[in-house]
Design a protein that fits this description.
The chain is α/β, with parallel strands linked by helices. The chain has 2 domains: about 220 residues, 2-enoyl-CoA Hydratase, Chain A, domain 1; about 45 residues. It contains 11 helices and 12 strands. Strand 3 and strand 4 form a beta hairpin. It is globular, with a radius of gyration of 20 Å.
């Protein structure tokens, strides 16, 4: 378990984190590391509070262009801390609801980030841990990782928007299978289901994901954020999609980054986007 201060742009100061690290491995890339490997990175109260602080800090940092989430040790995240979940056997449903909603919203706060987010699933992602990964824009898994939502096997209804997020990612048929059986899938089956986009070698996993994150960070920031917004909001029809694109694309055509992108393509060099 770690305790660390938040790194940010020059002059920025952030709160101290517990059971969570925030690193800046390359320009524009922020790396959030769940850091309680002895507990398989279970979502403790300390980690939850640190997560909220870190996400708020990143949301206010204009230098961030992509956020990667991963776990320290052999697990990505084993989900909610079961001793915390079962700690009030005499509580009423209303009292437990008041407890669980802030927990759900805390971890799903990553959805409020305007920049692309990547879940780097280095090991087991279970229950609420998988839900948090599903809340990210992109998911990559290390070969050997296992993923699943075994809520029913623990005697509880799924939480943290799993019954929304999982069907949205894998489709209703696969989501029913996974939720009602509670079975775990390996990384290759997760890839076949569309739960993850790539399966990578565990020996080079973090470096490979961070290399991809650097590629995302090198794209035009305004275009990237608007594309994320379009994908998140969805479109009711092709015409609704065209209406959105006819607004969003002209915004990017009016940027300095568009001119830089065209110059770079003509000069056969990498573009240097500034977000203007």
């Amino acid at each position: 378990m770690s305790e660390s201060a938040l790194p940010g742009p020059p002059g920025a100061a952030g709160p101290t984190l517990s059971s969570l690290r925030l690193e800046r491995p390359s320009e524009g890339v922020a790396l959030l590391v769940l850091d309680d490997p002895s507990m398989r990175n279970a979502m403790s109260e300390e980690m939850t509070a640190s997560w909220v602080a870190a996400v708020d800090f990143l949301a206010a940092d204009p230098t961030v262009r992509v956020v990667v989430v991963t776990g320290e040790g052999s697990a990505f995240c084993s989900g909610g801390n079961t001793s915390w979940i079962a700690s009030e056997p005499g509580a009423t449903p209303a009292e437990l609801r008041e407890r669980m909603l802030p927990f759900y919203r805390a971890w799903l706060s990553i959805r409020k980030l305007e920049v692309p987010t990547i879940a780097a699933i280095n090991g087991h992602a279970i229950g609420a841990g998988l839900a948090m990964a599903l809340a990210c824009d992109i998911r990559y898994a290390a070969r050997g990782a296992r993923l699943g939502v075994p809520f029913l096997k623990l005697g509880m209804h799924p939480g943290m928007a799993t019954t929304y997020l999982l069907p949205d990612v894998v489709g209703p048929a696969a989501a029913r299978d996974l939720l009602l059986t509670g079975r775990l899938v390996d990384a290759d089956e997760a890839l076949a289901l569309g739960m993850v986009s790539r399966v990578l070698d565990p020996d080079t996993f973090r470096a490979d994901v961070l290399a991809t994150a650097a590629e995302v960070a090198a794209t035009a920031p305004i275009a990237s954020r608007l594309t994320k917004t379009a994908l998140a909001r969805g479109h009711a029809s092709v015409e609704a999609c065209l209406d959105w694109e006819a607004l969003a694309q002209p915004v990017t055509l009016a940027t300095e980054d568009l001119q830089e992108g065209i110059r770079a393509a003509q000069e056969k060099r990498p573009p240097r986007f500034t977000g203007r």
